[in-house]
Write a structure and sequence with these properties.
The mean pLDDT is 87. The longest helix has 14 residues. The strands form three sheets. The chain has a four-stranded antiparallel sheet, with no helix packed on it. The chain is globular, with a radius of gyration of 15 Å. By secondary structure, the protein is an alpha+beta fold. The chain has one domain. It has four helices and nine strands; from the N terminus they run E-E-E-H-E-E-H-E-H-H-E-E-E.
């Protein structure tokens, strides 16, 4: 399920309104603690190797997971993952989208970047790769 969130200002507090739930930003320490034992993952296609590191996952969670949102937003209509998704679920989605685009990713230069799209469980996602990393993942609003 893809939800497009609205950023709402209440007094001096910014909130993420996702569906009928409202989320307050969390301290960065919550994300850091959640990723304490995260080992990362690697996706290989052809001669290219893409890493999904703790830093990459942290970026995905802080921007697009309502339970780990740190108020880092770039757009007014921020998209969010389903709040029920675990860190492992998000890793699996990233790897699945990478697999769906293996021929495209095999052609990206080692210092290059590219965005690709894929669908997992009926939800469309954008996966961004940069310099050998799976750096970005977010759901596309319907």
């Amino acid at each position: 399920m893809v939800l497009v969130g609205r950023l709402v200002v209440k007094g001096v507090t910014r909130l993420a309104k996702v569906g009928n739930k409202t989320y307050k930003k969390v301290p960065v320490s919550k994300v850091t603690n959640a990723l304490k034992n995260y080992k990362g993952a690697t996706y290989v296609t052809g001669s290219k190797k893409y890493k999904l590191t703790k830093t990459d996952m942290k970026h995905m969670l802080e921007r697009h997971h309502p339970k780990y949102w740190t108020d880092s937003k770039k757009t007014k209509n921020q998209t969010f993952f389903d709040a029920k998704l675990s860190i492992k679920d998000i890793e699996n989605i990233a790897l699945n989208v990478a697999k769906q685009n293996k021929s495209k990713l095999a052609k990206v230069s080692s210092n290059g970047s590219k965005q690709v799209q894929g669908t997992v469980n009926g939800v469309k996602y954008v996966l961004g790769v940069e310099k050998g990393h799976l750096r970005q993942l977010y759901p596309i609003a319907k």
